[in-house]
Amino acid sequence: MDRFAWTDGSLAHQEQIITHQNSVRLYDGDNKTNFDRGNLKLTSFRLIWTADKDKKCVISLSLSLVILLEEQGGGFNRSPKIILHLSAVDAYKPPGPIASSKHSFIKLSFQDGGKTEFYYALKDTLARRGWDLPAANKSPQKPPQKSIRTGIGGIEERLQQKHKDTDKDITQAFQDLSKLMNKAEEMVKLSKNLTQKIKDKRGEITDDETVQLKSYLLSLGVADPVTRETHGSGDTFYKELARQVSDVMTQPLQECGGIMPLSDVYCRMNRARGVEMLSPDDLVNACRLMSIMRLECRLQTFESGVMVLHLQEHSEDESLQDTVCRVESTGSLSADELARLIGLSVILSRERLLAAERKGELCRDDTAEGLRFYRNLFMTQ
Amino acid sequence: MGNFEFPWQYNFPPFFTLQPNADTRRKQLDAWRSLVLDYHRHNKQYTLDIAEAQSSDLFFNKSINRKLSLESINTVLEELRKTENLEWKDKSKKQCMIMWRSPAEWAKLIYQWVTNNGMNNTVCTIYELQNGDDTKDEDFHGLDSWLLDKALKLLVSQHKAETISYDGSDGVKFF
To answer: Which family does it belong to (chain A) (predicted)?
Structure first.
């Protein structure tokens, strides 16, 4: 009886119901059990028993465990029975109603008849070994079929096969990814441990070594990413996240001219975090809090809708003046020329030029060759 | 009649793109307005044909390969109309008069010439005014008939002149 497992009664892929019988009682060995009146279903994989009194009480027995069948005829005041001899319990068996039992057989007692039909159906099903089929059936038969089938049927089959293969590939690919995630999690754990150890052993290790080790850890990823799990949801999470984004991005921002599109920030943040991925929404929400929190970095949205992160010290006037100077020294500039000159993305260069135009510092020359900007001589001459 | 000297803007490529910045655009349109008027004054031209405008030197600087778009030309002309320097000849807006001097200014100029030459209370023909030897050195020599007519009508309304016609030719009598 310990071979039974709880189930919700739903069928597995390719599992089919073969027959069913009402008023069946289950015996554990020779003893009656509490599973006294129920519906017994025979599927190609399992026996499923559902209690009449409580439809939620459903237990199943895998047919692969059945070694031998035996019939036991009925008599006066005795209902006919089928005896199922079972193999040992599978170690990975899901939990069932009875944890252990000394009997290695069960009896099915048919109180409303139907034993003979059920017996033959069960015997037949066992002989067919349906639970082995999905794996065993396919491989030997497929190749010859493939070459024979032509026409629309053949094409359809080939397409189906292709779908299946892609499906398999994808599943495999993601398996690798989940393995990677697991490993990465370990890495983060390791780095956390190391950080903790450094904290504990302060003094024993020189400052230089600490800094070096920390930089190694940082190049692996953020040592302690802010997540919803650790920092709750809503405001606190966003605030902590904003602080972290600001801390992490300050140096890269300084290196690339004090301004960076939010999309780049998103990539850099997630690369640094490794496992605990940020959603774009979370990042935007966190960045919106930056100006309120008076952080080093600030979010700015241009009129075109482009969002950027920039350093607080990086003032707009300064970049405006710089842009105007560059245009003046070359005579005229297009967005991509400016991008090449100052090492900024084309989108941001364009935004700078447009901002300068709005201020009346530049004016445009719109031709088939593209948009160029000149000093606004209309205003100065 | 020497070559017309274009202003510096004419060689400035952004001059040929209508500027989106309001202040800049104002300056740009002002520059266009005076360019169109100066150009016509220099060449003593009074009419402008939209169909030919885009290929004329005025709106097409071949040396820097920049051309004002038809849409922008219309914007410039609309500016001129607002300042009463332009009047459409037809409703479909295909041809217009460029008035680098307003009819009132013309009227004043003509009347001055008349008094300076002591021709008050005399009659002269329209042809004499436009093409006569006496007016050769005057600005209104060769003035467009349509514009001259407007100027004379103004003088009539001021009781400084009277138009008369006899023998199929038109004349005017100044008081």
So the answer is: Belongs to the VPS36 family.
Predicted pLDDT at A212: 67
Same domain, A11 and A125: yes
CATH number at residue A15: 2.30.29.30
Chain B residue at shortest CA distance from A375: B14
Domain interval for residue A353: 316-380
Question: In Å, how far are A102, A118, A182, A307 from A108, measured between CA atoms?
Answer: 17, 10, 46, 70
Contacts of B7 (CB under 8 A, 6+ apart): B31, B34, B35, B38
Residue A296 to residues A250, A268, B67, B171: CA-CA distances in angstroms?
7, 17, 48, 84
Low pLDDT (below 50) residues in chain A: 135-146
Residue A364: which of B9, B14, B27 has the nearest Cβ?
A: B14
| pLDDT tens column, A53-88 | 888 888 888 888 888 888 888 777 788 888 888 888
CATH code, A359 = 1.10.10.10
| Beta-strand pair A46-51/A38-43 | antiparallel
> According to CATH, what is the number of the domain B8-98?
1.10.10.570
Q: Does B71 touch chain A (CB under 8 A)?
A: no
Judge whether B11 is closer than 8 Å to chain A, CB to CB: no
Shortest alpha-carbon distance between residue B10 and chain A (Å): 11
- Phi and psi, residue A25, nearest 5°: -110, 145
Q: Give domain limits for chain B.
A: 8-98, 103-174
Asked if the C-beta of B67 comes within 8 angstroms of chain A's C-beta atoms, the answer is no
Q: Say what the pLDDT of residue A143 is.
A: 46
Percent over 70 (pLDDT), chain A = 85
Topology (CATH) of B103-174: Arc Repressor Mutant, subunit A (1.10.10)
| Residue B154 distance to chain A (closest CA, Å) | 38
pLDDT at residue A269, rounded to an integer = 87
Kindly state whether residue A139 falls inside one of the protein's structural domains. no
Contact across the interface for B17 and A364, Cβ inside 8 Å? yes
